Amino acid sequence: MEPKYISLDPLLPWLRLPKPIDWDQVFGSHRPIEVEIGFGRGDYLVSRAKENFLHNFVGIEVGWISIRKALRAISKEAISNVRLIQSDARVAFEWLFGQESIQRIYSLFPCPWPKKRHQKHRLFSRDFLRLLNSRLETGGEIMLVTDHGPFCEWVMEQAQGTGLALELETIGPSFGTKYEKKWSRLGQKEFFQLTFHKVEHLDIEEKKEIALKTHRVADFFPEKLILRGHKDGAVVVEFKETIYDPVRKKAMIRAFVAEGAFTQDFWIQVVNRGDYWLVGPAKGSSIVPTWGVQKAVDLVFEAIVSQQEVISH
After folding, report:
1. pLDDT at residue 310 in the model
2. CATH says 14-198 is which class?
């Protein structure tokens, strides 16, 4: 079976790269960076990259189908100045871009989440706009286009206190994207374009990786292990399943960690090393070493220690 993409080269394995990312090294050139949030099929991203070959472009998208289509478009156009990131946009801007590193950010027809109970999922909240401000160069801009009037009004309210000056204008179909064509066919001929200009820098540091600490325990009894998760305002830890191999003397514990919008699903190993058992992330785990990951490892260690204390009594 032939893959539906042509090449995976533009897809960045960001979990394995030092953060924030050195974009000059990734692209092999020092050029202005433009970022598209939610590029859909990649129509606008690819056309803009093709027309502006002296800029470098980064596309952020969550869904694999969109990434697959964009990968195919990038290969067909034979352009080398585009990289794709599969990630939540909040996570990408927190971790992957240094302060004052981006010239232009744009998002065309993001989901407006029109139902009131879903509005917590909306991008372009005040906090998110402040984050984008910190990643923009002096004089940088954000362009947001939407067909949804109430969402436009909500974003305008969020703009206060972000260090960004806002301009609003109505425009006709201009980008040729899937959703623009859809709304045009349904009779909508005007859309809202919000342009934010950076006028004051807000200092928001990039998220940092930490040096993870592993643990050693003298004994381990897998059949007696009881794991409990953790939840506070910053970190949620849940344990999903445990697998034990008595021949290899190795337990694998699947953990889920959420730190704000950033979620990680990975395995923690408890493996026999002769005169002790080692507790830490399993080899080969694609994780960003964060305080949440450390908390999950610590909880496993504490559960094993507690188990031994019960047995000793």
Report:
1. 46
2. alpha beta
